[in-house]
Amino acid sequence: MDQSCAPLWEAIVEYANKKVISFHTPGHKLRSGVFPHIDKILGTSLWALDASDEVEDITNNHSFKQVLKLAETLAGELFNSYAARFLINGTSGGIHSMLLGLTGKIVIPRFSHQSVYGGLILSEADPIYLAAKIDSEWNIPLPPTFEEIKQVLEHGKNIETIFLTYPTYYGTTTELEKILKLKKQHEVAIFVDEAHGSHFRFSPELPESAVDLKADLVVHSTHKTLGTLTQSSLLHINNPDLEAKIDTALTVLQSTSPSLILLGVIDAVRRELALSGKALVENAVRLGNYIRDRLKCIDGVKVAPSRITNDPTKILFNLNEIGLSGLEVETRLRYDYNIQVELSDYYNVLALITIGDTEQSVESFLAAVDDLVRRFSGNKPLPKLSVPYYLAIPQKVFSMRRAICSQSEMTTLSQAENRIAADFLIPYPPGVPVIVPGEVISSDLIDYLKSCYKNGWEVRGMREENLMVIKEH
Ligand SMILES: Cc1ncc(COP(=O)(O)O)c(C=O)c1O
Questions:
Q1: Distance 400 CA to ligand 1 centre (A)
Q2: Does ligand 1 come within 6 angstroms of the Cβ of 92?
Q3: pTM for the full model?
Q4: Parallel, antiparallel, or unpaired for β 217-220 and 233-237?
Q5: 62-275 has which CATH code?
Q6: Residue range 90-113, pLDDT digits in tens
Q7: CB burial readout 81-111, b (16+ within 10 A) else e
Q8: What is the distance in A from the centroid of ligand 1 to the CA of 425?
Q9: Is ligand 1 within 6 A of the CB of residue 139?
Q10: CA-CA 20 to 30 A from 439: which of 70, 146, 239, 259?
Q11: pLDDT by residue (tens digit) across 60-78?
């Protein structure tokens, strides 16, 4: 197909140019002037592009559906999938759609994004969790290894699906190629959350993309690493048997009024990537390698090795040697140097380099870290967290869905022993749920949560020292 055209984007722009007099939604009637204060910031073209589902494409009968299909086919071709779908609720929406229609046993690493738990709640699938393991040097959760997946498949019965995150938010990749070889023997489907890896296809210096490796379903946030608008993602289908199921799920879960701007920009960016994606991503890789090499030369800065992240555009580093926590580095970069990083935890900071970076942005970042180190050098190293991570998986009594549909009440931590959780509790770091709805709260877990609270450690889902449990009748 001709990757130099962007049928959906062009049809939206054409329609805007026609200046059709609208007696139709949306209420702004595609014209600027209704909200002059907003126009000042957004400019005037945004409204005209924000039609509901009208497009001007004569060859495709002015049909939005036909033009969208064409745009999705071009995306599938570029990313090497059997079929692609444009998403307007991010990778979260894609993950929900992947899981919605599942009923059997599904293997899931406990260190999964919250949307995976959301998808499980929507589905009738029965999760088998893999406990997170923490890298002892970097203190970050690791993805399950090939051996762990092999063991669970060899010992578990009737497992139908494996759900993996590749790469993790920290940029760690599991041995996906080897894991995918287990598919046939064990007759399982493998779904991949590649939220942070949509750029993989565009450089041989990056891990191989899960789409190229032929996982059955892959979803990735093109908005995170490839520059489409926030909330837009791509879902790739490699197993044709799943195509109809995915379409049903998308019909259930996505808006019937998708933003043409979000969709059109996916198409327009896809064209740019087809024409110059390799050069753009390779430039980001070059800048990433450059930053890492320079950071490694600054005394007091520790940069994660490829064992932890083999994607050069993810700069995971820390200043623990000079006493700064990751959280403090993030705050100081933001308020002292006007730099915002992607994430931080007690120990580490993750900075992302993408196709949007320039030599100048990279030099500003390096100068800031250099200055920060100069200001704090000589300080004592950061003390290790006194509380070790809690990685045990509690006993399950109810499915998550049954738990969240049950009546709940608030109780104090001290009174929560043996009660059934009605909400997730997720300490940061490491971002792994210590309990999910429907699981039993043990005394060990209460002790752990109390020490988190005492140490001022954020636990998402806690309300001060209280938590939600299922009401007993
Ligand atoms: C690992 C992982 N998966 C999925 C998501 C959801 O992606 P989106 O923001 O595109 O919905 C995120 C978002 O941060 C993520 O980190």
A1: 20
A2: yes
A3: 0.96
A4: antiparallel
A5: 3.40.640.10
A6: 999 999 999 999 999 999 999 999
A7: bebbbbbbbbbbbbbbbbbbbbeebbbbbbb
A8: 18
A9: no
A10: 146
A11: 889 999 999 999 999 999 9
